[in-house]
Amino acid sequence: MPTISSPPKERTPGLGGGGPGKIPSRRGYGGGDDGDRRRPEKFLSYQSRLRRYRIGVALFSVCVSMLFLGIASVYVARQRIPYYDQNTQAFMSTWKAIHLPYIQLWLNSLLIVAGSITLELARRGQIKKAEFASMGILPPSLEREVPWLSITLLLGAGFLAGQLLVWNNLRHQGVYLRANASGAFFYTLTGLHAIHLVGGMAVLVYALLGSWLRRRFESQQIAVDATGWYWHFMGFLWFCIFGLLHFSRA
Amino acid sequence: MEELPSITTTVKPRRLLRRYVFSTDHKVVGLQYFFLSLAAALTGTLLSLLMRIHLIWPNLALPFFGTIKPENYLAYLTMHGTLMVFFVLSLVPQSGFGNYFLPLQLGVSEMSFPKLNAAGFWISLLSFLVLLAAFFVPGGAPGAGWTQYPPLSALAASGPGQALGTDLWLVSIGLFCLAAVTGSINFITTTLKLRAPGMSLMRMPLTCWTWFVTAILSLLAFSVLAAAVLLLLLDRNAGTDFFVPAGLIVSGAAVHHAGGSPLLWQHLFWFFGHPEVYIAILPGMGMTSHLLSVFARKPVFGYRAMVGSVVAIGFLGFLVWGHHMFVSGMNPYAAFAFSTLTTAIAVPSAIKTFNWMATLYGGRIRFTTPLLFSVGFVSLFITGGLTGPLLAQPALDVYLHDTYFVVAHFHLIMAMAGLFAVFAATHFWFPKIFGRMMNERLGILHFWITFVGAYAIFVPMHLLGMAGHPRRYSELTGVQYVAAMAPLQKWITIAAVVTIAGQIIFLVNFFWSMFKGAAAPSNPWECSTLEWTLPSPTPHAGFAGRLPVVNHGPYEYGVTGREADYLMQDAEA
């Protein structure tokens, strides 16, 4: 444990910037100590790594949000673009509304929310058990959360299958990527969402297989935790997409 | 002091591939980005040389390239823009120097996500190779400009390079977006969560601030570009109509897309495109602030104002994209709003400029190469920046849009100023990276040639623009008033050839000094930031195991009552 040799001295700030006010103690600011100066985190501690990965997932979620916001803004703007038809000498809209299969979509929404719940259960469960593991009561292993993680993966797969069914439904209506702008946006938005969800599921598979791949237990824990937040974000995004498609369909 | 063993960095990998190629060491990744950018810069410079020569000698048959046909010229200008904006200006200042020095200046031994960092580089390299591949496919490289406006870029039949070449361009840029995002996540997390004890945010060097804000800009902007690229790829390959309007006839055949709008692409692209130019210049601004302080032996004037203006520039940069679209038929009230916001960005930029000058004023200036390049940055930033508010007036922009005036503006403020910041940073940090000093005489000679050359090339270009000379024209002889400006074009080409030739001095200096330069001490410039507490060249382990504790701000220069006139950041309180 590091010790302070003498209490920090108050002194006026130096010339070179660094803000006014108090000069911090040796422990200082700078990530990793939660402001709790008596218990600084080691940079490679589980806690510190977890925090960094959470921030990383949050930033990635911001990135994904911007991606979808870009497409959504094109969607909204595209609806209002008139096309001047030479034959009728009038402005027409080329927007063909599509009929959304609401039952299937709500079922999918249920599946993704259920996935969020089970993954959250897994996440909280493994946090609790990590404490026991660090005390030596339980061996460090993700085994106890495997049921919840597997159920989450199944629910995610169910969601993806449900999305395929929705796509099938649209195909039967004659709505494809081509020649139907509304359809094009539907496929693009839901397809991108599904691809990102698959990415999240891949990380869950990494967590599940982690012991077999001889990954550090901590890394598996962090994977579950980060994916938990990511999955919640994916669920939130799904509802945003659903809402956009519903309210802007005409 | 805490003993903090770092798993990934204390032990240097022994196998060659793991040490120099597939390394997760942030220093190696930074250098990899640097050399990738160097390759891109050389390619881009060659392309610009070909363009300049073609403009004044259109019928000249060059060795290996042959006679440059108009479609070739358009391909060269597209690829020149793409290579320079993406692979040089978005990589070197941020991913090159940032990866190497952000952890060192923050006093830590590694980035937050070392493997993701390395992956980001390899994706960038793949992106570069895919882009270069566009030259070698049937039809060649795309010719729609680095802005790739549809419907030209959306229809494969609309030009020779618009088929496979454009698809490759789009895939390359899509990959680049992914790499940029991974890099940004790393930078932001590292700055927020990995700093040495005592390194508060307001004690970070200004370079770290600009890397941080640039990373935020990258994260937000490149995601939107990814959306645009995806939609354009769908338009080209899946028959969707996001950007292609109805009723088009290309080469006598009707196009079957219907109902999209090219304006949608323009909005998405420029929503990325404007923050992109701030991504290109902000790290350079941070480096300039840093270097001017070191070599004037004075603290940065108004550190907090500098931080505030960097954040303000970053924020305002997202609100002004419409000034690239004044001639698109937008509502004049919207044009007014964009124009006002664009002029507002001049305020934080001016704050920074005055603070740079105030930093130098009254300092005990050491006239080294990095200082000269930093002062050159300020000069070019002012010159290029002054034409910005000019172009921000819709009434003027309607005339000046797509003329050489715009070309002169962005080359001076982004290309030349950014380049000068890169040269300054290279000379400054070379001792830390390679353990040797670059040759000062060659550096000063290189500076003067480049400085005079930059002005000689781009100031006359404003005159071309004001006279109405359009940009992206391959043949100057067909239109009378354009042909009359050929003598000025000739001058610009001569100046360009001389300036480009002068860059050979830099390359010689760089590579020769790597092996034969004078051995560098650990702190040759007497700089106070943390990277200079390490030996030169930086050992693999960096700060691993011996984390510094920061007690001072980053710009404590001009300190009296001590032997040295500066205080290292980790000196005793």
Description:
- The complex is a heterodimer of chains A (250) and B (573).
- Chain A is mainly alpha-helical and 250 residues long.
- Helix content of chain A is 62%, strand content 3%.
- Chain A is elongated and about 80 Å long.
- The N and C termini of chain A lie far apart (66 Å).
- The model of chain A is unreliable at 1-41 (pLDDT under 50).
- Chain B has 573 residues and is an all-alpha fold.
- Chain B has a single domain, classed as Cytochrome c oxidase-like, subunit I domain (Cytochrome C Oxidase, Chain A, Up-down Bundle), CATH 1.20.210.
- In chain B, the strands form two sheets. Chain B has a two-stranded antiparallel ribbon with strand order 1-2.
- In chain B, helix 5 packs antiparallel against helix 6.
- Chain B is globular.
- Mean pLDDT of chain B is 93; it is low at 1-7.
- At the A-B interface, helix 1 and helix 4 of A face helix 6, helix 7 and helix 8 of B.
Given as residue ranges, the uncertain stretches of chain A (5+ residues, pLDDT < 50) are 1-41
Major sheet summary line of chain A: 2 strands, antiparallel
Average pLDDT of chain B works out at 93
Count of runs of 4 or more consecutive helical residues of chain B? 16
List keywords for this structure.
heterodimer; A: 250 residues; mainly alpha; Four Helix Bundle (Hemerythrin (Met), subunit A); two-stranded antiparallel sheet; 2 strands; disordered N terminus; B: 573 residues; Cytochrome C Oxidase, Chain A; two-stranded antiparallel ribbon; 16 helices; 1% strand
